[in-house]
Amino acid sequence: SMVYNLKSSLREVFEYKYYLVVPLKSIHVSVDLKSVLNQSYQTVRNKALSYFGFGEALPVNWYDKYKNQKEVLDNAVSLLEARPLDTEENIFINRLQYLRGMEYEKDFEIEMVESSIENLDDVNVEFEHVNVMKLSNFDKASYIAMLPLDKLPENVSYIHLQEEIQTLPFPVEVSYLTQFSLPKGVFSLLGKATRARQRLKNTMEEADETDTVQKTSVIRSRFLLEDIQERFDEDEPMVSYLNTLIITGESIEDIKSRFEILSSHLNQMGIGVVRANADQLYLFYKNMIGNVLDTADKNFIQSMT
């Protein structure tokens, strides 16, 4: 048949879909101090109760708290023509995170989670050759690699990463964990930039004292830091984000081959991707739907306006 011949010639048939996940309220993003303290107390309280085998039931009207925030969000993303997922779709994309690269029966997987939420993450997660992650579900299995970006060109305005990835002959999942930077404070991007600028100033003064020619990279860094300061002065939003590319394969050889192709392709664009062997499990769970960046996340974090 035509479909069979198409699959045979392409090896894999796939399409890209995009999901935007926004936490409507959490202790990570709330700007209301009273709300933060209340949620923090509830979080600690529930954890303490869980140690003794107790839990707090979810109120029937829990959704009412989020209605106003959801309306604001719906208006904000209306130009993207985005639509909210229904319950089954929500269940499926959350379950799909544990089935990457495997064949599955969609309706069966949804029914399993509907019968018990414990089935949501019911897969074997193991490692082969120390650092290659393998997922197993019944008689199906796949290998998976979480590949964070750690280098970008100084000017990324002309980089169309998603379009370039779509030219590859195999699927590459792209995950962004993004958080707006605090406007002020030690942990804000402005605070980090100020400290970096002071270190750079000291380096340049030492070079002047010894009549050493300034490196081009040092001079370029100085202008970049000044640019950040100007953008903050103009109240331009800044974000910190973790960008992870996810590839799967039927074997370790598949993963190796696809990583080499992807790495070579991105390198031509001035983008660096790392294997991150020691961080595979962390990246696997950090990129789960609903997770957010926090102050403990240090590695592979990028900043951008």
TrEMBL record:
Name listed for the protein in its UniProt record: Conjugal transfer protein
Taxonomy, superkingdom: Bacteria
Upper lineage: Bacteria, Bacillati, Bacillota, Bacilli, Lactobacillales
